[in-house]
Task: structure prediction
Amino acid sequence: MLQAGIVGLPNVGKSTLFNAVTRTRKAEAANYPFCTIDPNQGVVVVPDERLAVLSKISGSHKLIPATIEFVDIAGLVKGASKGEGLGNKFLSHIREVDAIVHVVRCFENGDITHVDGSVDPIRDIEVINTELILADMDSVAKRLSRTEKDAKRGIKEAAAENALCQKLMPHLDAMKPAVTLELNDEEKKILRSFFLLSGKPCIYACNVAESDLASASQEPDKHPLVSKVREYVSHAHSANACVVSASIENELVDLPEEDSAAYLADLGVTDSGVNQLIKSVYDLLGLQTYLTTGEKETRAWTITKGMKAPQAAGVIHGDFERGFIAAQIVSFDDLVALGSEAKAREAGKLRIEGKEYVMRDGDVVEWRFNV
Result:
């Protein structure tokens, strides 16, 4: 299962957000630096309103949503790349995840200390990213030295790695994250094997005060701090930012779904910031969903974008891929609009696809196979 690591400076709301995302109380949230030392892990349900709709059509007895894993990682401080604070441990934990959720404090609260004494989200972002880039520069320098001799001897793989390192170093030296470097497909493939910290896809979670959630969600560019973050990460890191209020989400953890909806409505919010964050991370990880439905269950299956039908079938069971014959597919929107599989067939919306079919998000599938 792919993992998203929640990172940020101490006391920006990482552990509170982790508890909200995982709907648990696993992570300690306290008003002092490094209250998280060892990472907390939790499996998170990906919100998908389509499951309930499909279950009504099929009369399903059970709904099974897609899931991803979140990891709450220790807070970072300046100098982490040189071992300051819990730097070495922090960086090793980041290296293990597939994407980063960077929590940025966008609220003022005199009762919650800030490691730098004031709230400045752009400065905070730069502290984190500088440490990731410095650690990457060290890794790339070592790889550059290691591949140089083999590249001169004409070893193709070493030459390709060495060339990429020479392209990376000036980019990183300019304090630009590896993820923003323009590369061709072959270079991107090689880069993945470097496991660079600044090469991981990242989304920024702007943690706002409870009183700001409604306005910041609806008009983020009018919030003084959120607007700065959105503009900065878009231009400097080719990344997106979303708005959450970790303190509100934490209040919702123990509430039933109906009470949560009423609580949010009272605040003028129609949807949970955490739900939007989870969906955004799912997309950031390069994942999408296809659906199966029947009387027994309606289920969301997680696949990577661009996956072809046989491999998608194999997510259910290896026999489905080995014995793949065809896929009977109707889009979720068409099935719901027409009301049943029979009517979808009559309307010509039910298709038979073969081995070269590239799956689309929201495909409702029945596999045909023989082993």
Q: What stands out?
A: The chain has a mean pLDDT of 88. The two ends are 27 Å apart (CA to CA). The CA atoms of residues 329 and 351 lie 5 Å apart.
